Amino acid sequence: MYRGSLFKIAGEEFPHKWIYKDSYSVTPHVLDMDSTRTASGGLQRNVLDHTSVTVTFQTVPMTIEEYDNLWEFIRSKYTVAKEKKFRGSYYNFESGEMESGNFYVPDTSHNPYMAHRNDGLMNSTTLEFIGY
Q1: What is the pLDDT of residue 37?
Q2: Which of 58, 67, 126, 130 could, after both became Cys, cross-link 23 (CB 3.0–4.6 A)?
């Protein structure tokens, strides 16, 4: 049952204030190994127990200071900094439960939302966390 948390990194809730409205997406992946059709056309699936997940969302536009805070929050949770790995949990809409696993952060594009000499810099990006 949903208890107010969508995504946690190392047991700490990812702040909803950084998630742009309507952009949060969870895709649980089923690992399908050599599913086949019977002679009568029926589907026989061979699905592995271990599944991965992808959690994706757009960040809200934020000042460079807020953006730095977001990345410090993420980096501080890495178990393997060079590989950008961490333990996390996500709300699985299909099971209705929080599910935990290992995640990593793939290469991320950083997109300046606004850059002015006097008004500073604002960034927004799409974050992706991939389970393995």
Answers
A1: 84
A2: 58
